[in-house]
Write a structure and sequence with these properties.
Layout (H helix, E strand, L loop, with lengths): L16 E8 L2 E8 L5 H24 L2 H4 L12 H13 L7 H13 L6 E5 L2 E5 L4 E4 L11 E5 L6 E6 L14 E6 L2 H12 L8 H9 L6 E6 L2 E6 L2 E4 L3
Antiparallel strand pairs: 1-2, 2-3, 3-4, 4-7, 5-6, 6-11, 7-8, 8-9, 9-10
Helix pairs in contact: 1-4, 3-5, 4-5, 5-6
Organism: Desulfosporosinus orientis (strain ATCC 19365 / DSM 765 / NCIMB 8382 / VKM B-1628 / Singapore I)
Protein name: ApbE family lipoprotein
InterPro entries: ApbE-like_sf, UPF0280
């Protein structure tokens, strides 16, 4: 896969939505909205929404550089910005540093903002998705060189949304992982939590023999509603996860 072109984005795009990309600094989002809601003005508004989302995080990081480098839970003061507190709490629950939740936190912030303008919205940020939908959706799973890659999809029903669908991989992408999973997908109403737990779960997978332990770990975290782990030609899942084959 050519990661720089983010070809994995085809796995979550929906035919009934208009998808467009907005990039601000390091944030590069793929966004889907209802066709009647799309406009050039919306694109400009989303870019400004991203800037508003990033500003308090950037200001906090400038004053607290250890927040970025922490690989373990990093407590913050109650008066910290909301996005910082949500990242810190997600990291605490998952047992990882708060930056493991940053992509999910931004996707959720922007997604909830757009949801005020479009009943259906999908925001993808580096493999981490915020979704709100009025219809059944299918989200394909990219799992690198695994023979299961692009062969299965997760079905998401409207009553499951808003939902975070976050993916971590020890083989694909630029995010830090200490494991070798082809794909770990975590579902949660909290996108930052799904992001952090996907990272923590992926860290546990070195061989296919680690799947059961990884699933058990993720399933014990309050707020997680589903987990899928893929290593080579094997997969394990738990919770509210319905898999469907992808036909060609």
């Amino acid at each position: 896969m050519d990661y720089t072109e983010r070809s994995y984005r085809q796995h979550h795009r929906q035919e009934d939505l208009v998808h467009f990309q907005v990039a601000v600094e390091e944030t590069d989002l793929d966004i889907g909205v209802r066709k009647e809601r799309f406009s050039p003005e919306l694109v400009e508004w989303v870019a400004e929404t991203i800037r508003v989302c990033r500003k308090p995080l950037e200001d906090y990081v400038t004053k607290n550089p250890d927040f970025v480098s922490a690989l373990k839970p990093y407590p913050v003061l109650p008066e910290a910005p909301e996005i910082v507190r949500r990242m810190s709490e997600a990291g605490r629950l998952a047992g990882v540093g708060p930056m493991a939740a940053v992509a999910g936190a931004v996707a959720e912030w922007v997604g909830k903002s757009i949801a005020k303008r479009s009943r259906d919205v999908i925001v993808e940020n580096g493999g981490d998705i915020f979704m709100r939908s009025s219809r059944i959706r299918k989200v394909g799973i990219f799992a690198g060189s695994s023979p299961l890659s692009s062969r299965i999809a997760i079905e998401v029903r409207p009553n499951q949304t808003p939902l975070g669908i976050c993916t971590s991989s020890g083989k694909v992408g630029h995010s830090l992982s200490f494991g070798k999973a082809d794909a770990v997908v975590v579902l949660s109403p909290s996108v930052p939590l799904a992001d952090a737990v996907a990272t923590a779960t992926g860290n546990l997978v070195q061989t296919p023999n680690d799947l059961e332990h990884a699933i058990e770990f993720a399933s014990q975290i309050q707020g997680v509603t589903g987990v899928l782990v893929i290593k080579n030609d094997r997969l394990a899942l738990w919770g509210n996860v319905k898999l469907l084959p992808i036909s060609f």
